[in-house]
Each structure stands twice: as C-alpha cells, then as structure tokens.
Design goal:
Chain A: NDH is composed of at least 16 different subunits, 5 of which are encoded in the nucleus. The structure holds two protein chains of two kinds. Chain A is mainly α. Chain A is built from 16 helices and eight strands. Helices cover 47% and strands 11% of the residues of chain A. Chain B has a domain of 130 residues: Beta Polymerase, domain 2. The chains are: A mainly alpha, B alpha/beta.
Chain lengths: 393, 190
C-alpha cells in the first residue's frame, strides 16, 4: 500500500470577487504555506464604473446623483466634497444654518458608516449578533434621512452654497431622541464586544502598523489615528463649523486591529456629542420656530438674513468652473476623501480626480498579512474598513 | 509653519533649475518640474527638516491634448508635521517615462499603476506596472480625451460559449448631446 506523500509547496488560493461579507467585490490571491500567509495580492477593478470620465461630461448638479455611489454607506461625505470643490473654486460662502445642517448630516452619516463597518467586521470574526443590532440603529438613521432628504441612502441633498431643503418640522426633536437612544446602545455594544475574550484573542495584536509606516503608506482616518497620530482633518483644516463645537480627536497608540476598533467606537460617541451640540445651537432653531419668526407681525430683518438660510433647490445649472486647480478634502469615516479639480471656464470640469481613502488604506494589506494566519486576513481586511465602490470608482 | 513658509523656504533652498514654474494661490501652491528632476525634488521635500512632506496623498494624471507634452502628472503631497500641502507637477507625452517614486512613498505603487492604466504614462523602476482598474485584456487608456465615454467594446455573457465575450459596441439610441450652458431650449432635430 502506497502512503500518500505530503506536499510542501505553496498553495495559491483565490478569495474570489464575491464575498459573503459586505466589503464588495475584491479579489485576493493568497499564497499559503499551510495556514501561514506568505503573500496576498489584491486585485481591484471589479466595480470600476468610470466615475472620473463621467464627471468630465456632467455639470456639478448633474453629477451629484453619481457621487453617492462611490462610498455608498457614508453618502453625505461624497456629496459634501462634490459641492465643496466648486464652492472653494468660486469662493462661495455657505450660510451658517446650512453649515450646521451639513455638519449634522455628516456626523449622522459617520455614525451610519461606522455602524455598518462594525456589523460585517464582527461577522467576519464570527460573531453574528452585532450585525442585527447595527441594522436596527441604521434603520432609525434611514428614517431620519428619509424625512429630511427624501431618500434613505442616496440622498442628493447637498447643493453648491448649502443644502437642498430645510429640515422638516419636528426633525430636530426626533434627532435628539435618536442621540439619547443611541448612546446606551453603543454602551451595549461595548459590553457585548470590547472585553469579550474571544474577540480580544482574534483582534489584539493583529495587523500592527507602526507610526512611521502609517505615515509612509499615506494612511488616513481611523487607521492613522489608531497608530498614535492624532491627525483629524476636522480639527486641522477648520472646515464647515466644527470649530464651534467642543469635541476631541479620538486616537489610540497600539496600532493593531483592536485599536482601530476602539477608535471607531469612540468616534461614534464623539459624533453623537457633536450632533447634540449642533442641534441645540443651530441658528434659527427648529424650522417651525424660524418660520414663525419670519412671518412675525413686526418684520424683523434678522430672521431673513443670510445666516439663517439654507440654499434652495435651484442654483444655476450653468455654474461655471473657473480655470483653476485645487484639492479639497474632507474627513470621511474611512479616511481622507479628496477631490482634485481642474476647472476649465465651462460647466464641465476638465479633470475630476477622486482620492478615495479606501484605495490607499487597502494598499497596505499585503504587507500586513505577511506573517499572519489565514483567518487573520479577514480580521485585518475588516479592520481596514474599505468599500469597493470608492476604491474602484 | 503654514503653506507659504514651506513653499518659500523650499524655493530658496533647492537649485533653481529643478522647477521651471511655480505658482502660489489661495487654493494651493505648486511646483512645475522636469521629469529628470522629479525624484530629486520629491526626495528633498520628503527628507529635508523644514519641509518634511512625508505623505503622498495623490498622483493624478491630466490630459491636455492641445499641448505637445500632453499629459501632466500631478503629485499632491502633505506634511503632517507642518500641516501644509504642496503640488508637484510634471509633463510627459505618450512615450516619456517618468521615474517612479515608490521607493520614497510606498503608497505610490497603486497610484502609478492607475496613471499607467488610465493614461498610458509609464514609470521606470516600478515594481509591478500593470493594469489596475480596467478589465483583463482591455485595450486602450480610458481617461485620455480621445477615448470616448462609452468605450469601444461591450461585454456580454455568451451562452453557447459559456463565458463572457467582448464585442464592438452597439448603440441602440443615437447619441444626444444636451448643451447645458446654453439657455435655448434644446430640440432633438438640432
């Protein structure tokens, strides 16, 4: 009887474009030696839709519905950066009320994105329960977005110079209710997950990125902050009206997957703080009060002033982009989302380059998995938090 | 230190022949350089104590078909130490090869692959220069201005052959161009 010989050569395994978790269509070609990973090669391009070329043939207002399809979980950020680019090009001031509404929407979107990062991350590790909990919270966010913008996910809400419509009656109270409801929920997640020994075994020490490496590889967002660099564009760039709120940059020193998890959880709590402050301090207050003041018998000029306006739905469709180049950026939940815009004295941009945080953060993956086991690939991939919609555009 | 001082300092410090154009504006400062000096300039910016531009944010290709050197490759850089950003641009034509900056900034790996894939500008010393976003076996460089928006081929699954095939594009509707800039009402018969 012949004894089958054990082969020692390396195995090349394809983790094909379809994934059970919600990362999107990413193909990983993994070279394995038994259970150890020797190399991993990501192959992108399965979701490439030519967003940049389409942008060269659309006006800004025509292009807005496309942008939410880049990062389809944190849609307000893509819209914010699409309107920030022409606003900076044309030096357009945004009214304070519109800026507050934008900040509220952006922070709600950040919470939504981190929630939908948490669910699949835990599902990859093996814990199925948080997946249902996060969708329960996300549904509440969808309800808020739907009443304010008309759509659950692909909002098309931001306009050049402000937002498309003012907040409806009672929205501010509903949003404050959501914030009060959400904080104990995050505490529940932390009770369930953070000190769970199985979770810690899977996640602690996995995928370590040193500080120097993080800077060299151009990482941004929670990946950078988890490696000990408190770099947050909201504090550094002073954009929108983040300076008027009292909040801290969340960062950790360890640089492993656990640190990234902690950064994102604390960012969610910090976002709730910002939203609560914004809702209480919004110029004009809730829409019903603003309306009443505008229609007051003694017509006070102040309540019709620039600062209390949002922008209406119809800015000029022939908004011309002057012949300049600029790079705008925003602190998306995944990292630094940027647009490099070259205008052309016409309604169409000459070059619209999208700088997705996911592409850069994904590039470090082959290096991180080199000494790890096969099961750690999914943990690391999950902790990087990528969305193929923006990686591939 | 802000944008202006890092810009001013670097202008005064490195050899003048490295940049042939500089521009400062409130939207960001930029250096235009030659492909020969590109690597040296980026090396200087990255390692010099008072510029320390350690983060490569973006490498972008731009196509200006009316120019002789039609492509422009833009490097967006950031210094976290001094919180300032700077742009370095070089021009190239279809056959010029630019030296790769992967040894300086590892994040340039995929960006340069994308510039190669989308524009056709190739890079010397790049460890792995191949297509990144387009389909396997795709021909052409999509983001060039002479490549049409709809492309040249369309793909479909062919049941007899049991695989995906590429065929020349078939437009069932004539291309309609709507001039957004003009206030006149557009009619389909022109």
């Amino acid at each position: 009887m012949t004894v089958p010989a054990t082969r020692n050569d390396l195995m090349i395994v394809n983790m094909g474009p379809h994934h059970p978790s919600m990362h999107g269509v990413l193909r990983l070609i993994v070279t394995l030696d038994g259970e150890d990973v020797i190399d991993c090669e990501p192959i992108l391009g399965y979701l490439h839709r030519g967003m940049e070329k389409i942008a060269e043939n659309r006006t800004i207002i025509q292009y807005l519905p496309y942008v939410t399809r880049w990062d389809y979980l944190a849609t307000m950020f893509t819209e914010a950066i699409t309107v920030n680019a022409p606003e900076e090009l044309g030096n357009i001031q945004v009214p304070r009320r519109a800026s507050y509404i934008r900040v509220i929407m952006l922070e709600l979107s950040r919470i939504a994105s981190h929630l939908l990062w948490l669910g699949p991350f835990m599902a990859d590790i093996g814990a199925q329960t948080p997946f249902f909990y996060i969708f329960r919270e996300r549904e509440l966010l969808y309800d808020l977005f739907e009443t304010a913008t008309g759509m659950r996910m692909m909002h098309n809400f931001f306009r050049i110079g402000g937002v498309a419509a003012d907040l409806p009656h009672g929205w501010i109270d509903k949003c404050l209710d959501f914030c009060d409801y959400f904080l104990p929920e995050v505490a529940e997640y932390q009770k369930l997950i953070t000190r769970n020994p199985i979770f810690l075994e899977r996640v602690e020490g996995v995928g370590f990125i040193a500080e120097e490496e993080a800077i060299n590889w151009g990482l941004s967002g929670p990946m950078l902050r988890a490696s000990g660099i408190p770099w947050d564009l909201r504090k550094v760039d002073h954009y929108e009206c983040y300076d008027e709120f009292d909040w801290e940059v969340q960062w950790q020193k360890e640089g492993d997957s656990l640190a990234r998890y902690l950064v994102r959880i604390s960012e969610m709590i910090e976002s709730v703080k910002i939203i609560q402050q914004a809702l209480e301090g919004i110029p004009g207050g809730p829409y019903e009060n603003l309306e009443a003041r505008r229609f007051d018998r003694v017509r006070n000029i102040e309540w019709n002033d620039f600062e209390y306006r949002f922008i209406s739905k119809k800015p000029s469709p022939t908004f011309e982009l002057s012949k300049q180049e600029l790079y705008v950026r925003v602190e998306a939940p995944k990292g630094e989302l940027g647009i490099f815009l070259i205008g052309d004295n016409s309604v169409f941009p000459w070059r619209w380059k999208i700088r997705p945080p996911g592409l850069i953060n994904l590039q470090i993956l082959p290096q991180l998995v080199k000494r790890m086991k096969l099961a750690d690939i999914m943990t690391i991939l999950g902790s990087i938090d990528i969305i193929m919609g923006e990686v591939d555009r | 230190m802000d944008n202006q001082s890092i810009f001013q300092y670097s202008l005064e410090t490195f050899p003048k022949k490295w940049v042939h154009l500089m521009e400062r504006s409130e939207h960001g400062n930029r250096f235009d350089t030659n492909t020969d000096y590109l690597f040296k300039l980026l090396y200087f910016l990255k390692f010099h104590t008072y510029t320390r531009v350690q983060v490569l944010i973006d490498i972008c290709g731009v196509d200006y078909p009316s120019r002789k050197r039609r492509f422009e490759v833009v490097y967006n850089l950031l210094s976290t130490r001094y919180n300032s950003r700077i742009r370095v641009q070089t021009s190239a034509d279809e056959v010029t090869r630019i030296s790769s900056v992967v040894s300086l900034f590892p994040s340039a790996g995929w960006w340069e692959r994308e510039v190669w894939d989308m524009f056709g500008v190739s890079f010397i010393n790049h460890p792995d220069l191949r297509r990144i976003l387009t389909d396997y076996g795709f021909e052409g460089h999509p983001l060039r201005k002479d490549f049409p928006l709809s492309g040249y081929v369309e793909v479909r699954y062919d049941d007899p052959e049991k695989r995906v095939v590429s065929e020349p594009i078939e437009m069932t509707q004539e291309f309609r161009y709507f001039d957004s800039a003009s206030p006149w009402e557009q009619r389909s018969d022109g």
